[in-house]
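Example is below:
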Amino acid sequence: MRTPATATAVVAAAALLLAAGCSSRTAPAALEGRRLADGPALFLSASPDGSRVAWLAGCAPAPGAAKGQLACTLLAAPLPGGGAQRVADGVAAMEGAFAWGPDGSLAALGRRDPVAASGDLTLLRPGGEPRVVAPRVTAFAWGPASRIAFSAGGGLFVASSDGLAEPVRGGASVAGLAFAPAPGRALAALVRDASGALGLAVWSDTGGEPAVVARDVASFAFSPDGGALAAIAGVAPGSAGNLVVVPLAADGKPAAPVLVAPAVGEFRWASGATRLAWLAGFDPRIRAGALASAVPGGAPTFFAPRVTAFELSPSGQQVAFLRHMTDSKYAVHLDLSPSQAAAPGSLSQDAASFEFSPDGRWLYYRAGCAPAGDACVLFRAPATGLGPSASPERLGDGVAGVTIDRWRPDRVLVSLVRRDGAGVDLALWSGGRLTSLDRNVLAGSPRFLPPDGRRAVYAVALPARAGLYLADVP
C-alpha cells in the first residue's frame, strides 16, 4: 500500500489484539498452518508458477557492513513441502538481493561485499544445482526468454538460458539496469561517465553501441507495454530533475526524449496502461509536490498541491492520493479522482495507506489509526468513487497490514495487531467476514501463492514456533 512517508508497500508490525478487541466478524479460533521449515524466515518469495518458495534464513550482522545490515543464507524449497535447497550464503537482507526469473530460475548475489556493494551472481535453474555465473556483480535484471543481464568488473553482460554470458558493448560502469517488459526488445541501464555523472543508455534488439538518451539521471522505468521509457533527468544537487519520456520503436530503438514536466521528484506508470502520474514542483524536504497525470504526448491534468503519496489504478483511469491540508486543522486527505479530469472526492481525512486491487475494481485503505499508527480500520471503496449517499465498506479493525489476492481481488490477507508485540494475527477476509489463519505471524510476510491464490505462505515470529508456514485459503 502507498503511505504518506514512503509511498511503498506497508510492512507494519504492531501491538497485540486480544480476543476481546477483535472484530465481531473474526472467527475466534486461530488455526496453525503447516510448517515447511524451522527457524526465522525473511523476504519470502514464490516462483512464478507457485511450485517453490525462497526465503532468507540464518541472518547475522554482515562483516564490515554498517550497523543493522544482515548477511543471510538463501534457501528454496518445493511446495507443498520438501527439503530446502541451499542456494547461496552471504545474501544481503534487502529488496533485490534475489529474484525469480520467468522460467522459475532463481538468481542471487551471494558472498556480498558491503563495501564494494558487489557479490557472486549465483544462478539456480529449475531441476539443477546452484552455480556462480560471475564474481563482483553489482546489479542484475531478468529479461525475456530467461536471459539475465548483469554488471561485473566494470562491464555489462547478458547470459542466455544455457548459461553463456556475452559482453554488451558500451556497458562500462553500470549502476542500475532493466529489460523492457515482454517481448523485451530494449535493455536500459544507468551508465557512469568519467565525471561520475549517470547517463541513461538504451540497447535495442539490433545490437551495437547504446544510445545515451538522458544525462544526470536519478531514476527510470519502462511503460507496461515496453513502448516508452520515462526518467528523471538533469538532476543537480539540491534540486529535482525533469521528467522525460523516450519513445521506443518495435525493435527497442529509442527516439529523442520528450520533456513532460520540470522539477519532478517522483513518478510512476499505471501498472496496465501507458499513463504517467508525477509530483511537480517537488520539495525534497517534505517529499511533497503538485500531483499531475498525462499520457505521453498529452496535456497534463493537475490535481492538488502538497501530495506525498499517489497511485494510478491499473487501467490508468483513476488516481488516488494523499493530500496534506492545513486550513483549519492539519489533516491528511485520501482523495480519489478520474485521471483525465481533476474531480477529486475525499474518502478519509486520516488515511495511513491505500492500494488499488489488481483488477482495478476496489481501492483498499487504512484509516482511523491508533496513536501509535499501527492499529487502523480497514476500508474499501469502489475505484470509480462513492456515490452521493454511499459509504465505504468497513472490513476490519486493528489492522496493521493488508495483502490483496491478485487472482480474486475481493479477498485479502489481513494482519491484525497484537498487544504483546509478538508479531501479528493473520486472517483471511472473504465473503464479508474475517477467518483466522494463524497467530504470531511476522508482519509483512504473508503472500498469496500462484497460480490461483488458494494457498498462502508466511513466517511466524514467535521463537517457539519460528518457521515458514503454508496455509490453504480456498
The radius of gyration is 23 Å.
